[in-house]
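Ticket #4471: structure export looks truncated?
Reporter: QA, pipeline team
Priority: medium

Steps to reproduce: submit the single chain below to the structure queue and open the exported record.
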Amino acid sequence: QVQLVESGGGLVQAGGSLRISCAASIRTFSSYRMAWFRQAPGKEREFVAAIAWNGATTYFNDPVKGRFIISRDNAKNMVFLQMNSLNSEDTAVYYCAAGTSASWRGPYDYWGQGTQVTVSS
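Actual output as written to the record:
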């Protein structure tokens, strides 16, 4: 059974940084493209970033480009999202996702339960 568990969310001041993590119980983790999505209150879920199976290529949505970094550790079945220069518009529940589709934005096959990130101004 595939399970994705996010951690590391919390409250951070505007301009600050936070790193969130996702632990994946997938036997063939290195076969999956991994991604982060987010959903703010009253808004639809939004693609944030994705990373190729080997970590060699990454892709970011425009609002986070240059501020966020996605990385993965295939030996530990982990994926990370380093978030810098945070602002109030980054406040959301962040979800980890795993998939094998050809598109960076999905669809994705497996989803975590999410971790809350709140940026105070």
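Status: closed, not a bug. The export was complete when the record was re-opened. Leaving a note from the reviewer for reference: The mean pLDDT is 97.
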